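INPUT
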Amino acid sequence: MRHRNILWFASVLSILLILPLITDDAFFLRIITEAFMWIGLAMAWDVLAGYTGYLNFGHGVFFGIGAYTTAILMMRSEWSFPFALPAAGVVAGIVALFAGLPTLRLKGAYFAIATWALSRAVQQVALVLEITGGPDGMRLPPFLNPKFFYMLMLGIVTATFLLFWFLMERASFGLKVRAIREDESGAMALGLNPTKIKIQAFILSAVPTGILGGMYAYWITFIDPASVLGDLVTDQAVVMAVFGGLGTLFGPIIGAILIFLFKTYFWAYLADYQVLYLIILGLLIALSVVFMPNGLWGTLTGYIGARQALRKGLAVNPQAENETEKGDKTHE
Amino acid sequence: MSDPILRIDSVTKAFGGLHAVDDVSFEIYPGEIIGLIGPNGAGKTTMFNIVSGYYAPTHGRIFFKGENISGKPPYKLAERGIGRTFQVVKPFPGLTVLENVIIASFCRYPQREKATAHAWKILELSGLADRANVSASSLTLAGRKRLEIGKALALEPELLLLDEVVAGLNPTEADQTIELILKLRDQGITILIVEHIMRVIMSISDRVVVLNFGRKIAAGKPEQVAKDPQVVQAYLGGEA
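OUTPUT
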């Protein structure tokens, strides 16, 4: 089983590595590059939302901070890109540390509101500061090499994927954050320090997002508060992760690919019906939340897993289970 | 007798004007099973929450192995050797039974492989090994209560606080749980147990502490306490 996974991973990665060698289609490479970026953003959001159970509606703030960090270091301090890019991750991580201390005490909707408010506040700050160029934004020196950005984006997102896979699925950290998600006060009795684990998860979610932001700034060469600090970055990442399946490694990847491709092709070929895009997307999300609360990937694996369990005799049919549940409640 | 493992020194916990626990003192010695009883609302669970670090006492101090632990957070106390269960069981429902116990095992075995091996031992001990890979939410009430004990045991505690682990079980399940508790005592774990079922408390406790309206009204051997007029009155007056 594990060997098969490694084989899958290696084949997908090698196809993606060969792709820029066999095509010079800039539009095509650009779409794939942006798809990588959204995969990274959706995965990073899911670390905190799906695995840890904290819905961050200000996730885009780390993307924007990363973008501005790279831009400011390159334009105002004349750093070169290889140094300005990691700095974006460092700054995003530090912001997460200080933003997390007060906000991660909040639960549910209150955390969502607090993070959303933080992102609005940071956007306003970027609008009034001089160093960020205010509403005019910042222009970076153009570096027109689609293949460079393709490869770098692929590298960053692959590294993020491997890091998350190791921490969330292999190491102890993944189980600890799940314990926090399931029952924070119960986890405390087992020796887990919720504040520490939540802050770690928040930073883990923020750092790749900041790096992707820095990457975006240099790639697109123009950033302003509306494009990198607006709601859209968060909204898209949220929708992709929810549609694909929260709390899984592959859910956000699949969600990001499907929704991003849908958006791109809709805008490219049905530009006259642009107004329909958001309507269809909204409907799609509403339907998926109602009928597939575990997302596309979660529903798929859940269905396969349940069939296997039934076959192996590890589970009984759901109706019998419901009855024991009711029985238990009367006991309590 | 040796030094007490737990010393509760005139502890009070007030919620606003209500004294849920009022100037309670008692001691627990290593290897004992102490029953904590009292009518509903007597402050038993509050006492548990204070000892396990969920509440800081308003007044008074708590010593664990001679060290003042009042106000220390639960996860620090878990590391020091106090394990607890919850009256309303708290399994991690979305995780498997095994994963539930692995999480608790991280406290002593930070590496995942060692924690997993330790978790299997705990599951054998608590009789859940055959259900290791099912989701914790699909366990019956008896299973969830056993899981609750198993998780506390995975911490390798010196002092174990059991909050109504027998209530709600059928007689066979109850006997199995009692057997488990006695086995743990024989392994050298000191136990403080809250239980409504008198048959259980009276048969397994070395000593009993009785609370009523937050105050300690009696303490001693089970048979003495059962004859104490104040205790009789508290039960008949409080619950009849």
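end of record. Chain B has a mean pLDDT of 91.
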